[in-house]
Amino acid sequence: MKIDIHKVALKAGVSIATVSRALNGGELVKPKTKEKILKIVEELNYIPNPIARSLSKQSTETIGVVLPDLVGEFFMDFIHSIDEEAYKNNWHVLISSSHSQRNIIETLIELMGSGRVDGVILMAPQMQNEVSEIIQKSKTPVILVNTCGEFSKIDQIKVDNYKGAYEVVEHFIKVHNYKRIGIINGPKGNCDAEERFSGYLSALKKYKIAKDSSLIINGNFDVESGVIGFTTLMNQEIRPEAIFAANDMMAVGAYEAAKELGFKIPNDVAIAGFDDIYLSQFLLPRLTTIHVPITELGIKAVKFLLNRITKKKRNSEAHFEVLPIELVIGGSCGCRYS
Amino acid sequence: MKIDIHKVALKAGVSIATVSRALNGGELVKPKTKEKILKIVEELNYIPNPIARSLSKQSTETIGVVLPDLVGEFFMDFIHSIDEEAYKNNWHVLISSSHSQRNIIETLIELMGSGRVDGVILMAPQMQNEVSEIIQKSKTPVILVNTCGEFSKIDQIKVDNYKGAYEVVEHFIKVHNYKRIGIINGPKGNCDAEERFSGYLSALKKYKIAKDSSLIINGNFDVESGVIGFTTLMNQEIRPEAIFAANDMMAVGAYEAAKELGFKIPNDVAIAGFDDIYLSQFLLPRLTTIHVPITELGIKAVKFLLNRITKKKRNSEAHFEVLPIELVIGGSCGCRYS
DNA sequence: AGAAAAAATGTAAACGTTTACATTCATACG
DNA sequence: CGTATGAATGTAAACGTTTACATTTTTTCT
Hints:
2 copies of one chain form a homodimer. By secondary structure, chain A is α/β, with parallel strands linked by helices.
């Protein structure tokens, strides 16, 4: 037999209102009564029905996370950290993924309008501009993660792609004195990719190295394009001394291509990546890369979202934050590493 | 202004009951009225409040997925397929992960008792027996994924670990005539690991190869233990001709160790893995491994769970299914591969 | 002790649906 | 044309909470 608040109230000899109060914050309920109620709650193993609660409070205590169609392994860590932080606040996490049946925008719209969540976390490095309008129109708060551009009305948090790329290239130049530095880019239109490319260009400029378009290759963040990018670069007349792969997956591709073609890293060519995925620490030589604070990204996304939702901060100005990254030195850049 | 069913009813000049009926199945509502209502629904952009609906129908139309603490990249695909299948049935997916704050059993219990989901998918290869009792006691249906043992009352679906391992080893023996075949095991107590080990042993036995404990190494499914396992095996007086890593991550570790120690795969030693992770297709040589139908696993888990929940099949006998795997031949076993 | 103030509790109305049952309306039949 | 029948719709009671407001109980003060 399902037990509800009435059963508890009956057994405790009080009204349901008192039971409710005893359980929530316990504002103005006599300590003794409260104690008694809590004991009975324990005894009956009563768990308030969250659905009824949601209906009454007009709040689901659930946040939605939109999953892109294709996601890297890091996304799992992202979700994990989101859920852990939500849990700490007694909130829950509903996921909604885009797939063959619906694209990411449709997913977002459905989720926001569904009434099942009070806020949404959207990681969408390939975000189109139309999305920002959609979000502005909706009353459901959204926090953007790793998106390009800055929107006055929408909370946003991201990783410092620009600085990361800049630091990698600067390291190549300042520490190793490389001049011919190639890059394997991420996909066109991808925000992370574009910012990283921009960091690459800035570093070159800063150190007065002319941009050489034969050293700039398009990739799309997967292993295969790393293979192709590396091969293309190394088949040229004048080879690069170093290659910056805009993410670690492509760097892995570069490693494989190097093996295939008989090049030694870093002696024949130096490599660096971006993301610091799990695997990169095991590559030989250990990959020099940029560590991305993915856990922090998830935690902060939840924090800001909850702030926006609960603190009646609904109209305060948008929060914008760029998380710092960290250069991780391995052996692939030419440094000694043990 | 939030619009609800009353507004729609008012504008359509009917009662809310009729609106509700027009929207759900539309049993016995005059075609003309229905049409009119639907038009107004469209016009006002009315979306029924799912919370109220849940309360009234006593069903959340949401399934819960328990995330283990540490998960491989394949878990992302698993979730994706779950969500896609759920979506096709107009259901939703709530995730709940175990982490530093609570272990997997607590997570499961909380989720089942929470009233936020109508059923739960639990992938727990390291499941303790106590879990099955907990599940039996609860009225929330649960489907176990990749767990060991067979429980008469609980739906279960898994991958054919035994056969996969058997096929790998059989391939080593029959095609390549290897006799000394080592294995790097997964963690103790892990169901996948134990079944794979068991398949390994059976194949040896079938082909009358004596079990040699110096060829059996303990690992724990991560890259590092692959490195260690490989190193240990190859540092022995008499080296193995082939090594079966119980998952691809450890196989990757083996590749790295081979590189470090100067062994060529497959000439000096053959390697095979299990899982067919994204990366394995890019390894050089391509890793010979067992493909696990992770998407199918997710889809079927949802299907059976929904069946159990909705079809009043609540007490029909438990569904038990083992999904077939597929041997993927790469170059690492000694086969030619291009 | 009695009045006023404060604290504790109770009552009942939300929250937005679904659905059993009651009622009205249309149709066909004698 | 009235009536029986079935189809279409309406009414109101769930579903299980929270919470504004009303009421009762306790405390404090003179």
